[in-house]
Design a protein that fits this description.
Largest sheet of chain A: 7 strands, antiparallel
Radius of gyration of chain A: 19 Å
Number of strands of chain A: 18
Helix content of chain A: 25-40%
Oligomer: heterodimer
Radius of gyration of chain B: 24 Å
Strand order of the largest sheet of chain A: 8-3-10-1-16-15-17
Strand order of the largest sheet of chain B: 11-21-20-18-17-14-13-12
Shape of chain B: globular
CATH superfamily of chain A: Aminohydrolase, N-terminal nucleophile (Ntn) domain
CATH class of chain A: Alpha Beta
Number of helices of chain B: 15
Number of strands of chain B: 23
Structural class of chain B: alpha/beta
Number of domains of chain A: 1
CATH topology of chain A: Glutamine Phosphoribosylpyrophosphate, subunit 1, domain 1
Distance between the termini of chain B: 66 Å
Largest interface: A-B, 51 and 47 residues
């Protein structure tokens, strides 16, 4: 591993919410929610993911880039030129904040793939290759996110300062997730903050993945290179593999990452037992072990998940069409004082909030995936 | 024959104050080390025959006997050690090949001893296996790369069918030991212990006595180069089949059960005449290359209706990684790899001590190679060869093994004292012998209990170590080399094992 690799150490605060009717809200709400969990971070990392923020460019892959120096920007842009058509690019707008220092060069690009970049595979595979290539090969360049109609805003600082810095109050999104980080050893690297993202997947994570060593080697088999120097990225790649590549329903993917215990499987009826036995045998190396709570964001919604013993806190609430998931009750009640329902999800049980209607701009591939999501929903 | 220059290996010290001349030692020693002198009403020792098995010392009711290494030594010489000199004397007197039993006992580097495990502190709670679930269940066999579901009305149904698997509740199996090399009672103890624990034992190349058919669901039936005792019923009754190509104690050579050990029962089980030598050729004479192995794998699968996983066992040799890859591509569901320190009932000493490579390096090389080739899921890896304790097992699994085979440790649990004289057929502990006077010494119920205790104790220790790492299922340890660190190794050795040096953080 490179010099930056570190386990993501404990103590983080996470929050996420989705409006299932696709109604958008400004980013100050998620900042408010994160602020109540100030103590769960130590100012060495904060970040947000937002979905539905670029409706006018929803057909482009929105690349949020972090550059350490101008050369890395030049190199990356030259690389983009070989693979993509750059429809538009600009600095990511920021606002001076006394508590945010030494930011990298922040730039965003709205890209379309050149037909020859797709190489017979599907478009999203080509994007994955581009992201892996930049993160692994171009020194000083890091892809914060590269999905459609979404973006990740992250950096070194407390989440409320990072949110302010990125002017999140000026964006409107139907899904927001946020993260405040408490690393014990930080290189002060902006790329190391959460959320971690691949395509339109984002992950905010509180915990430590003890199975990282094998999850990483397992993912390498499928062409994923763990380049972010953190254990969190394996979650984003695992969900991408299981749902996008293996076409598994999201509930099944959650039960691979957080497998039922064998004694639970023993008690199931025969058909279910065979399903879960097979999943554990085939996807043994995709089991994520160790204490964690995550909120996974996606174009279609969010999934909250904790480890099989729930060694990290996770609470959920519903109010009308909005599903909230957070580390602490306070984060939800700060922005939704009287939710209709508040509950503690059981260990390893996913909490899923999904958009009710597919977005107009969906590609055929993600529509198919939507069908799988809905399949799960109707069950 | 002239005077033997070969000195006694051991001293038998008999405390006359304690000895009551009960003659237990006389009756217990198959090597005639203790002789009763009627004239003087005392017991005299024949130290030259002593193999150091401690049977007499253990059973002496007054603790009168002490067995020690003979302190008399040769002049110190770093090259011409006592062992070297004694071996030459032995061969000068016999004119034969040096024979020995059990695994390599030379002081080669143990990579297990140079690897250290991880544990959680502060940022990650360790898990207490006595309070929380801790899962060791393992599926051995070929897996598909992914599963598929089909939509059925409101729900979904699995369309992927798992090929036959061996399911074990602890990642430890009993390795191959044939009926012939070990006694009926020892086989019975292994079979019943495997059944109690929920794991498997292995017939070795000795066939399967009809009495053991009831334990078929816990039996791996070996098909070796001599094909002894291989018939339709044998394959049918077992849970899995293992083609034995080689073993760690004697890579590249066959096996030899002397006619003296081929009793009526063994003759029936092995399907050979009473008193004839059972010789397993070095190669299978129908396998001269990998494509021939493929034919045998599929012949066995055909013969058993594709209901049983087929394992192929090889010795860990220099090319072990590509060989394992070829075996998987030939259709094996499991690859069993036996390392340099693997035991045996009989092997030429030079082969045992100088051929093959340590299992730790073999596991690491094979696991990496199979991942590079994208075929790791197509077979499970069972590692064998000198596993001494549960920490060795945890380290092997972290390197990439699915499970381990133990045999020497199982024999020790039953009473073996590692005197390395299995090939003489005079095992005083009743394990590696067919002499009815000796075999009845091993009570199969007690031996079973001791085996079950060993696996239970090791499983608990494995759970404790997993819990310490913050892991609650063995599959999250498998191939997870981040939990290993090396001490006292070269960078090249660390690279081959795929681990970092102690002191390096994540």
């Amino acid at each position: 591993m490179g010099q930056f690799y570190e386990k993501d150490i404990s103590g983080c605060g996470i929050v996420g919410f989705v409006n299932e009717n696709g109604k958008v809200v400004p980013g100050d709400r998620i900042i408010t929610a994160m602020t109540t969990m100030h103590e769960r971070g130590n100012g060495l990392g904060g970040g947000f993911a937002a979905y539905g923020i670029y409706p006018e460019r929803a057909d482009c892959y929105a690349f949020h880039m972090l550059y350490d120096h101008p050369e890395s920007k030049t190199k990356t842009e030259a690389y983009f030129e070989t693979k993509c058509i750059i429809e538009m690019d600009e600095p990511i707008p920021t606002r001076q904040n006394a508590f945010v220092s030494n930011p990298p060069i922040l730039w965003r690009y709205f890209l379309k793939l050149k037909p020859e970049s797709i190489q017979g595979g599907d478009e999203e595979d080509a994007i994955v290759r581009i992201v892996m290539e930049i993160n692994a090969r171009i020194e000083g360049a890091f892809v914060a996110s590269g999905g459609k109609n979404m973006g990740v805003f992250k950096g070194v600082g407390f989440p409320e300062d990072i949110g302010e810095y990125y002017r999140l109050d000026e964006y409107e999104a139907y899904t927001w997730t946020g993260h405040g980080r408490f690393p014990t050893n930080s290189q002060g690297w902006w790329g190391g903050a959460h959320p971690f993202s691949l395509l339109d997947w984002t992950v905010v994570h509180n915990g430590e993945i003890s199975s990282y060593g094998i999850n990483k080697r397992y993912l390498e088999h499928f062409g994923y290179q763990c380049t972010c120097y953190t254990d969190t990225e394996v979650l984003a790649y695992l969900f991408d593999l299981l749902i996008r590549k293996h076409q598994l329903p999201i509930e099944i993917a959650a039960k691979i990452v957080c497998a039922h215990f064998w004694d639970e499987i023993e008690r199931m009826d025969e058909q279910q037992r065979e399903i879960y036995r097979t999943l554990r045998a085939v996807y043994a190396s995709a089991l994520v072990n160790g204490p964690f709570a995550v909120v996974i964001g996606h174009t279609h919604g969010i999934v909250g998940l904790s480890d099989r013993m729930k060694l990290r806190p996770l609470i959920a609430a519903r109010d009308g069409e909005t599903l909230y998931i957070a580390s602490e009750d306070s984060a939800i009640r700060e922005i939704c004082p009287q939710p209709e329902k508040v509950w503690m999800p059981r260990a390893g049980e996913p909490v899923i909030g999904l958009l009710k209607s597919p977005q107009q701009q969906e590609t055929a591939a993600s529509l198919q995936r939507m069908a799988l999501f809905q399949l799960q929903n109707s069950k | 024959m002239s005077l033997s220059l070969y000195p006694s290996e051991f001293r038998i010290e008999r405390d006359p104050e304690r000895c009551i001349v009960c003659q237990v030692c006389v009756r217990q020693c198959a090597n005639d080390c203790h002789v009763y002198d009627e004239d003087d009403d005392c017991i005299v020792s024949n130290e030259r025959n002593c193999v150091g098995c401690h049977r007499c010392a253990t059973l002496c009711p007054t603790n009168a006997i002490t067995i020690t290494q003979n302190p008399s030594d040769f002049k110190t010489n770093a090259n011409w050690t006592a062992r070297v000199i004694k071996d030459i004397y032995k061969q000068a007197e016999s004119g034969g090949v040096l024979l020995t039993g059990m695994g390599c006992d030379r002081q080669l580097p143990s990579y297990f001893d140079r690897m250290l495990l991880n544990a959680s502190q502060v940022t990650n709670p360790s898990i207490d296996p006595l309070r929380e679930p801790m899962e060791l269940r393992t599926h051995l066999g070929s897996k598909p790369e992914r599963v598929d579901f089909k939509r059925t009305g409101e729900g979904f149904d699995l369309t992927t069918e798992l090929s036959p698997q061996l399911v074990i509740d602890t990642p430890i199996l009993f390795s191959a030991m044939s009926y012939g090399s070990i006694s009926y009672n020892a086989c019975l103890a292994l079979a019943t212990a495997a059944q109690t624990v929920g794991t498997f034992y292995n017939t070795g190349e000795g066939g399967l006595h009809k009495d053991f058919y009831p334990y078929g669901e816990n039996t791996i039936a070996q098909v070796a180069s001599g094909r002894f005792g291989v018939h339709a019923e044998y394959l049918d009754v077992a849970a899995a089949i293992e083609i034995k190509i080689g073993q760690g104690a004697k890579p590249g050579i066959g096996g030899h059960l002397p006619g003296e050990k081929v009793s009526e029962e063994i003759s029936q089980t092995r399907m050979i005449p009473v008193g004839t030598d059972a010789i397993s050729p070095a190669p299978h004479h129908d396998i001269y290359s990998i494509e021939d192995l493929r034919q045998l794998i599929f012949a066995l699968k055909e013969a058993t209706g594709y209901r049983k996983p087929v394992s192929v066992k090889i010795a860990a040799v220099h090319n072990v990684a590509p060989i394992a890859s070829g075996i998987i591509r030939a259709g094996a569901d499991i690859v069993a790899i036996d390392g340099l320190r693997g035991g045996t009932g009989a092997a030429p000493t030079m082969i045992r001590d100088h051929v093959g490579i340590p299992i730790e390096l073999a596991i690491a090389a094979v696991d990496r190679r199979l991942r590079e080739e994208g075929i790791r899921h197509r077979a499970s890896i069972i590692a064998g060869g000198g596993f001494r304790n549960s920490a060795d097992i945890v380290k092997a699994i972290a390197l990439g093994a699915d499970a381990v085979y133990i045999a020497t440790a199982a024999l020790v649990a039953m009473g073996c004292h590692l005197c390395q004289k299995c090939y003489t057929g005079k095992c005083n502990w009743g394990i590696a012998t067919q002499d009815p006077y000796l075999t009845k010494r091993l009570n199969p119920n007690i031996a079973q209990r001791r085996l079950v205790n060993l696996l239970h104790g090791w499983s608990l220790e494995i759970k404790e170590m997993l819990g310490g790492m913050g892991i609650n299922a063995i599959e999250s340890l498998r191939g997870n080399r981040e939990h290993l660190r090396g001490v006292g190794m070269t960078q090249n050795e660390l690279d081959i094992l795929g681990i970092k040096s102690a002191g390096e953080a994540w």
